[in-house]
Amino acid sequence: MTDVKAELISVGTELLLGQIVNTNAAWISEQLADKGISVYYHSVVGDNFNRLADVFREAGKRSDLVFITGGLGPTEDDLTREAFQHISGVQIEADQGTLDKMEAFFAKNNRTMTPNNRKQAQVFEGSKVLHNSVGIAPGIIVDYNKTIWVFMPGVPREMKAIMTEEVLPYLKDTLALEAVIKSRMLRFIGIGESQLEYNLRDLISNQTNPTIAPLASEGEVALRLTAKAESYQEAEQLIEQTEVKIKKQVGQYLYAYDNVHIEKKVFELLKQNHLTIASAESLTGGAFASKVVDQGGVSAIFNGAAVVYHPFSKTSALRIDDELITTYGTISKECAESMARQVKKIYQSKLGISFTGVAGPDELENQPVGTVYISICDQNDQLFTERYQFNGDRQEIRNRAVKKAFELLFYLLKK
């Protein structure tokens, strides 16, 4: 089969309520892309028989390969099997091998197997039963009405085991997959989404293979390049050729690839340059330090942080001159620079960085909400200070300040 059109259906009311993040769909899509299978649709549907049946019916009309996760458990609201039986007429039967496994599991753990647990051993007549090496409920593959249906538990650990050990080998043997799809994420900072798209307007408007998809997030933007070819080598070459063209236009803003985010890149640059850093934070309240210490091995580059929210803490903990605060205020270039210099000195680090400003909800020291000063004192005691006016609510202003700090450090360190 060529040009396989796949779709994913995630079952569970808890997904619609936001109680659980739907990580399964992203992971399955990634695995399929590596096999050259294009995913056309993602759906999330609650534990409702009629809605499940409607979604299944529509999927069967438009897709060659349908993946369904969730709704295979023992409770009354696990309705995936029943809804599929309703639209297909395929009978449900017990799988003896799964029943034996379940009974052995409960006996080993000195637990009584309640009757409703037997539901997890139900499969479709004539289906391929997929072994679950890390759980009880099996996966199921059914070939119905020219569509391959793959049913798996919604628990990510179980789904991934079944997908890796059973489903992908089955698809490799069953489908004549000729294409490979490969993606690469290019991450940029210091340029807005609209400016990036404008600079690359000719490349984006004439894209064919690879495709170029801009993806914006707070304080930065990314481009996802996706190539389809007959081999990984050919797909890689197509992406490389497009990346060279992109770099000619906006390469100075490129900071990393794929899953490397700006805080990770700054950490790597600090480590490469044998530099340490300490932070003094007022409005950000330790948010910058928290991002830094999320990195593994951070003790090599991070000497410490001082959260100095009140003016008294700035003068007592950082020993900032009272007269400076009286003259210029805490929300000032002068205060920010003194904080950066002092935290560097106190924590004996090569770099010091500071944050002061107004996150809201009210003005402070006659400064409007969103006013932020960020100052960096480098290893030569040279100061780099910027004033910003951020928009948004309290949390957004704080988040933008932290992201901007990593941007400033990136451009300072890569010189």
Provide a descriptive summary of the structure in words:
- With 415 residues, this protein is α/β, with parallel strands linked by helices.
- The chain folds into 3 domains: 5-174, Molybdenum Cofactor Biosythetic Enzyme, Chain A, CATH 3.40.980.10; 180-257, Alpha-Beta Plaits; 262-413, CinA-like (Maf protein).
- It is built from 15 helices and 17 strands.
- The strands form 4 sheets. A 6-stranded mixed β-sheet has the order 2-1-3-8-7-6, sandwiched between helices.
- Helix 3 crosses helix 4 (80-88) and helix 10 packs parallel to helix 15.
- The longest helix has 20 residues, at 394-413.
- The chain is elongated.
- It starts with a strand and ends with a helix.
- Give the low-confidence spans: none
> What is the CATH domain class of the largest domain?
Alpha Beta
- Largest beta-sheet details: 6 strands, mixed
N-to-C terminal Cα separation, in Å?
52 Å
Using only C-alpha atoms, the radius of gyration works out to: 28 Å
In round numbers, the mean pLDDT is 94
**Annotation field: number of helices:** 15
Beta percentage is 25-35%
User: How many distinct folded domains?
Assistant: 3
By CATH, the topology of the largest domain is: Molybdenum Cofactor Biosythetic Enzyme, Chain A
CATH superfamily of the largest domain: MoaB/Mog-like domain
